[in-house]
Design brief:
Blueprint lengths: L4 E6 L6 H13 L4 E6 L2 E2 L9 H12 L5 E3 L9 E2 L1 H11 L5 E6 H5 L10 H4 L1 E5 L10 H10 L6 H4 L5 E4 L8 H9 L10 H10 L11
Parallel strand pairs: 1-2, 1-6, 2-4, 3-5, 6-7, 7-8
The structure holds adenosine-5'-triphosphate (ATP).
Adenosine-5'-triphosphate binds next to helix 1, strand 6, helix 4 and helix 8.
Length: 218
């Protein structure tokens, strides 16, 4: 069996160094076979992104282009209607019946999991790898506390020897960067340099995909 497929979903509005460094550390430290970046089309559980799906996909492609082990998967961008992670995981499980799948989530995303469609099925389809983010604590009680108590693993080998069902919490370098913060920077006319890869900054500048929501260009 090749290494686990790490699945990094998000709206990526825009993709930034917090996403990229997290994906890179998880790729290396958990010896994943690949990290598959899956930009959401029309995500159901949050506000509509500012940049259109094609542009967010282009920014993800530009950001990961030179990194071996990083792969872009455009299935959600091309899906009509609201995109749900559970549907993507069902598809990936059918495509890779003997491969470990690891859904990579920041702690904030993990804490919102109970709002996702058919969320209780998600740990049956994939492992959950939860990356620590600044300011967020591991839940001790409630449904997620119970889920962790039942499924938490402290052994990264479990992600290789089983196909799904474990929850693994992994500390990554803490980078307090968010797409929301970046959009604010751009809308207020400041430069997002060094918070996004240069090719992403160029797409943002050339298309004015965020600046047109504010006063001036980045
Ligand atoms: P927004 O500010 O628009 O909510 P975001 O920066 O949180 O965006 P998303 O595209 O919503 O980015 O997040 C996709 C995934 O990346 C989620 O699992 C989220 O927890 C994770 N993530 C986002 N920012 C970071 C960061 N700085 N460090 C680690 N993980 C992150």
């Amino acid at each position: 069996m090749s290494g686990p497929i790490g699945i990094f979903g998000g709206t990526f509005d825009p993709i930034h160094v917090g996403h990229l460094r997290t994906g890179f550390e998880l790729l290396q430290e958990l010896a994943l076979g690949e990290v598959r970046w899956i930009p959401a089309g029309n995500p159901g559980h949050r506000e509509a992104p500012l940049a259109d799906p094609g542009l967010r996909l282009a920014m993800v492609r530009a950001a990961v282009a030179d990194q071996p082990g990083f792969v872009v998967d455009d299935r959600e961008v091309h899906r009509t209607g609201i995109t749900y992670t559970v549907d993507t995981l069902r598809e990936l499980r059918a495509e890779h019946p003997t491969r470990s799948l690891c859904l990579l989530l920041g702690m904030d995303a993990f804490l919102g999991l109970p709002k996702w469609r058919e969320w209780q099925l998600i740990p049956q389809l994939a492992h959950l790898v939860v990356a620590h983010r600044p300011g967020w604590r591991v839940p001790q009680d409630g449904v997620l506390g119970e889920l962790l108590a039942a499924h938490r693993s402290h052994h990264r080998d479990d992600l290789h020897t089983t196909l799904a069902g474990r929850i693994y919490v992994h500390a990554v370098t803490q980078l307090e960067v968010s797409s929301t913060g970046l959009r604010d920077i751009i809308v207020s006319g400041r430069d997002p340099r060094f918070l996004v890869p240069d090719p992403v900054r160029e797409i943002i500048r050339d298309t004015e995909c965020y600046a047109r929501h504010g006063r001036r260009r980045p």
